[in-house]
């Protein structure tokens, strides 16, 4: 049995190597720069920050909504603002894809930022860049790290509904499937564990964690009175049937603070989503388990890696958008 598991793990590592070879690279895309809007829209950072500050102060959950939007954008066609497009007669957007429908919000916040920027610098700042800046500011506003944001993305004139259904990780997936989707985007195992640390803020819908709390939650958890109370509370929020849209925090300790407590949750075996707990509990998770322990014990290491990984994810560009793309006047629709 041990030999079988070893061979399986070796085969999967070979598979990951092959996926990385054929992953979505951005090497042929024009380079992004830190001073892209220096002369054309010098107030871009100030405008985005003010709108994000108001939104997060009014409801800290807005921070997680924007980070999630940015991530779902980058995993489909690269970071090109395609996730923001509404359905039209001749365009099928990504908002109704299986991992987006009833899950993604924050579009009106992006609309407000875009409106302010169009008043200040009409036709200059792309929606893709707005999302990237806003995600950085969102993390910073709830106590997370700062990083410089390379800019210069163009907005796509297409969306990837089918790609959204296949590329986006789901809450029920196992570790091997999750890793393969990140590696396909050119992200490493280290990037994966760090980026999933964004689940230290935000909420999950009952439909996405029902199987977990009525399944192996008791097996992975410490079975202390505290964990049993936590599980009982989760079951009251998410009954065995019904209540699909009821929500619970993915980090029940500090849900509105960007910190490393998410990793301690995994070590206790109390990860809300199966895909998160797999980082620590999967039999294939030798490397991911070490990284979970590292970030739990060293918040500075987590912050540094998260910053680097967010820049790396943000640099997943849609090469075609630099040729056929545009700067949308309204983030929901292509220019006419």
Tell me the helix content.
Answer: 40-55%
N-end to C-end Cα span: 61 Å
User: Structural class per helix/strand content?
Assistant: mainly alpha
Mean pLDDT: 92
Order of helices and strands: HHHHHHHHEHHHEHHHHH
* Widest β-sheet, arrangement of strands: 1-2
How would you describe what is shown here?
The chain has 336 residues and is an all-alpha fold. Helix content is 52%, strand content 2%. The protein has 16 helices and two strands. Strands 1-2 form a two-stranded antiparallel ribbon. Helix 2 packs across helix 5, helix 3 crosses helix 5 and helix 12 crosses helix 14. The relative contact order is 0.17.
Summarize the topology.
Layout (H helix, E strand, L loop, with lengths): L1 H20 L22 H15 L2 H14 L32 H14 L6 H15 L19 H7 L7 H10 L4 H7 L7 E3 H8 L3 H4 L4 H13 L9 E3 L11 H7 L6 H8 L4 H12 L1 H16 L6 H4 L12
Summary tags:
336 residues, mainly alpha, two-stranded antiparallel ribbon, 2 strands, globular, disordered N terminus
Overview in brief:
Helices cover 52% and strands 2% of the residues.
């Amino acid at each position: 049995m041990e030999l079988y598991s070893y061979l399986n793990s070796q085969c999967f590592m070979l598979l990951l190597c092959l996926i990385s070879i054929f992953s979505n690279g951005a090497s042929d895309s024009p380079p992004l720069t830190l001073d892209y809007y220096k002369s054309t829209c010098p107030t871009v950072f100030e405008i985005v920050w003010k709108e994000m500050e108001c939104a997060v102060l009014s409801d800290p959950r807005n921070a997680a909504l924007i980070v999630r939007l940015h991530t779902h954008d980058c995993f489909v066609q690269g970071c090109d603002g395609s996730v923001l497009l509404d359905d039209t007669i001749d365009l099928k957007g990504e908002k109704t894809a299986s991992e987006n429908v009833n899950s993604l919000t924050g579009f009106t916040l992006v609309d407000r930022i875009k409106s302010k920027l169009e008043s200040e610098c009409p036709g200059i700042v792309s929606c893709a860049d707005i999302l990237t800046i806003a995600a950085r500011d969102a993390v910073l506003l709830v106590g997370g790290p700062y990083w410089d944001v390379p800019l210069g993305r163009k907005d796509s004139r297409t969306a990837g509904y089918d790609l959204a259904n296949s590329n986006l990780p789901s809450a029920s997936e196992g570790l091997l499937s999750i890793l393969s989707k990140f590696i396909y985007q050119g992200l490493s195992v280290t990037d994966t564990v760090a980026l999933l640390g964004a689940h230290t803020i935000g909420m999950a819908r009952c439909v996405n964690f029902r199987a977990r709390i009525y399944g192996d939650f008791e097996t992975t958890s410490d079975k202390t009175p505290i964990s049993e109370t936590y599980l009982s509370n989760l079951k009251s929020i998410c009954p065995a049937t019904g209540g699909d849209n009821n929500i619970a925090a993915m980090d029940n300790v500090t849900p509105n603070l960007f910190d490393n407590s998410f990793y301690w949750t995994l070590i206790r075996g109390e990860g809300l989503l199966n895909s998160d707990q797999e980082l620590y509990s999967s039999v294939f998770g030798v490397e991911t388990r070490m990284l979970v322990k590292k970030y739990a014990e060293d918040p500075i290491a987590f912050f540094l890696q998260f910053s680097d990984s967010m820049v790396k994810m943000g640099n997943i560009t849609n090469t075609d958008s630099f040729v056929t793309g545009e700067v949308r006047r309204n983030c929901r629709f292509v220019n006419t």
